[in-house]
From TrEMBL:
This is Pyridoxine/pyridoxamine 5'-phosphate oxidase. Homodimer. Its cofactor is FMN. It catalyses: pyridoxamine 5'-phosphate + O2 + H2O = pyridoxal 5'-phosphate + H2O2 + NH4(+); pyridoxine 5'-phosphate + O2 = pyridoxal 5'-phosphate + H2O2. GO terms for molecular function: FMN binding; pyridoxamine phosphate oxidase activity. Residues 159-201 form the Pyridoxine 5'-phosphate oxidase dimerisation C-terminal domain. Its EC number is 1.4.3.5. It comes from Roseovarius atlanticus. The keyword DNA damage does not apply. Transmembrane segments: none annotated.
């Protein structure tokens, strides 16, 4: 694309995404890695919630969660998800759609071990998305887990990462008179080359 320059320039959408995230880390006050994650339930009804992006890899966007949560169950059923990263300070966003696989090996173990002890104990104590009687019940479970697991709890089998491997990535930047700049990278499968198209705002 002759006019795909500046912040849109590059031959690798993951490098562009990492560059945009790095800029956001300098300008966003809170959680520049916050993203809206969309899934669908068994009836096709959409679900969306904010989660934290852990990393942008060579070919995927990675986040971590409880596999038994609503989002975990919905991803397991469909194998697909979408996300949006939006940075108000930069007036930019990235939209991603793709297929999802688990990241539940040594990389997940290492990340879990790097988290604060309270976060690790919380992962053990919370039955995410399940009904909860009271906050007191949750804190009692945290106390029980703390006594049982000690100061170095291992990663629970039901907690780990998801990798979203995109078939579509859209980069959006605010433009004057609401004439925004939009470039979408699409490919049929992960083996295909990207096709880049400028979209009308």
């Amino acid at each position: 694309m002759s006019d795909r320059s500046g912040k849109f320039a590059g031959d690798d959408p993951f490098e562009i995404a990492r560059a945009w995230l790095a800029e956001a880390e300098e300008t966003e006050i809170n959680d520049p890695n916050a993203m809206a994650l969309a899934t669908v339930d068994q009836s096709g009804l959409p679900n969306v919630r904010m989660v934290l992006l852990k990393s942008i890899g060579a070919d995927s966007f990675v986040f971590y969660t409880n596999y038994e949560s609503a989002k975990g169950a919905e991803i397991a059923a469909s194998g697909k998800a979408a996300l949006v990263l939006h940075w108000k300070s930069l007036r930019r966003q990235i939209r991603v759609r793709g297929t999802v696989t688990r990241e539940d090996g040594p990389e997940a173990d290492a990340y879990f071990a790097s988290r604060s002890l309270k976060s690790r104990l919380g992962a053990w104590a919370s039955k995410q998305s399940q009904p909860l009687g009271s906050r007191a019940d949750l804190m009692a479970e945290v106390a029980r887990v703390t006594a049982a697991k000690g100061p170095n709890p291992p990663r629970p089998a039901y907690w780990g990462g998801f990798r979203i491997a995109p078939v579509e990535i859209e980069f959006w930047a605010d433009g004057a008179f609401r004439l925004h700049d939009r470039f979408v990278w699409r490919r049929e499968t992960h083996e295909n080359a990207w096709e880049i198209t400028r979209l009308s705002p």
